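BUG: 3D viewer hangs when loading the predicted structure for this chain

Environment: internal workstation, default settings.
Expected: structure renders.
Actual: progress bar stalls at 90%.

Input used:
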Amino acid sequence: MKAKSTNRRLRLAARWGCAALVAVGIWCMASAVEAVEITEGQLEGIPQFVVRTEAATWYYDRPGGGFSRLIDREGRDWIAFSKDPLSEFPASAAAGYRGLPNLLFGGGNPDAGAGHPGFDRCQSTLVGPDTIRTESLSGKWAWTWTFTETTATFTMEKADPDHAWWFLYEGPIAGTFAPRQKYWGTDRAGPRREVPDHGNQLFDRWQWIYFGDVAVQRVLFLAQHEPDDLPDTLWYLGSSEGGAATAPDGMVVFGFGRGPGTQPQFRGGGQRFTVGFLETGVGDQAQHARVAEMIEAAIAPEPATATRRPRSIDLWHGPQQTFGGRGEPQRWINVLGNVAPWSEVERLTYSVNGGSHQPLTLGTDLRRLAAPGDFNVQRAWDELRTGENLLALAATYQDGEELTAEATLDIARGQSWRLPYHVDFAQVDDLQEVVQVVDGHWRLTDDGVRTVHPWYDRVLTLGDSSWTDYEAVVRLSVHGFTPPQRGPPTFNVTHMGVALRWRGHTVDGLQPSRRWYPLGAQGELLLLPDPPQCRWRVVLGAGVVTQPGPAVPLTSPMWIKAQVESLEDGRTRYRFKNWPDGGEEPPDWGAEAHKPPGAEYPSGSLCLVPHNADVTIHEVSVQALTEAPAGGRPQPK
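Structure tokens produced before the viewer hung:
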């Protein structure tokens, strides 16, 4: 093995010129100390670059573009990737989920898996005596790793502008999975010994983090060079059911730029991260302070030139918003936005027409409030006067500074949302004039209205409580989605939903309210990584669900038809179907469900509800059922 390694070094010297290698003191036989030695190797049949330094041995999966092993001086493997099983929840927490930096994720990203060991999505080459460069097979992504005796520094050179990414460490701290024996610390505090799991993941803003074991005098640190205001996450995932604390094996999950709902946050290139070992344990705050100095020295002087997100209150639909011009589709008026930087805000309050200030909950709440700093002002129509109302927002920051913002809410009352109704979102200038936004950040594009931040129910509603029997046809495109996972915010399901006979969230003591039922019914086109497995289900209310047969596989764009009808026997029938744009509408319904007489709401509005899905809604047509044609889609009005 040693002879093979030497031969490899001589071949590298011949390629670059031995004089250049001698100048940096590595690889050539004439060098006094091999500070960084890169050779070729294998792991489970996968070609690797094996990087040997004073502090560690790194195994870099060449076709995967990520580290599969990180072995310290005493032989502990802090990653311990294995490709069997590669993608099986939760068993792969002891095998294929592990890696660093595990960059690209998501069913809608054609490069998903790049940057992760075990996925053949990349090609990696040596571009210097201490540098590995990786490019995705698509050519849209490229990054480098540069090594020193104690660290490895990642630089994202090129990133696909259409997809976000994150930087993850997933592996067993100090080579074993024993969460109660581990600790961690960040630039905010440490050492800490909490054991958050999949159901209560921690989210915060961290510039660096370290991990250690109480029996090991060594910590692994990860540091981000350029500060930002994006969410990061930390939790433990066991390899068996029942929670991380009792699992026989598993890993810690830490992610820079990994937001709630398994959402990547980084976009574009230029970001840098450094990973390395520090030869010390951390048992108290004094040791934490010394480790903090070492980590901050490793990423200096970049903080001096870095920029942070300015303080702001962003009202997503502007300082002048209209409600009720066509009717009242739900019991609430919602004003949405974000306050930043979230980590510096002590509290956010609002008042209406000079009244007393009321507190606002700030995201993320793992449901309606998606990103950190998101807020949703929820007021009943009767709490506002007809005509102009002044909404005043006040953010108090931790240093005592107060930032204010105002919005004028123009309220119309007594209007009835007339049928038939049609809207082509590509022709719309003001979203609030054609629908009411209930949840989420949306933007108008040349193709329609699109979710800015896919997450838990993103909701647009139209119509009013007088609508009884009607049919809606929606043209939309699904660009991508978060695969369903246990816990928030997917709660085991990802879908494009259409709700019928809805009147708004029910008061439940939370701000904003979370309880989405009662309602008539919601048809949900369930989105799954394998498109032919996508199916319809109908949710009839709390705990009442039917799940009929398969739906047409996902296409982009597609049509969805939804129908609610009162039957002669007193029951209400709900039906749903979908088909590809340009194709023939199927004669049969993809899903059908019934409610007994007198169940919940006899009337209500239409809701469009992408749940953890990146969706563009192109157009919507709604007609009273007596006006709807027997076949085909309603004609635009």
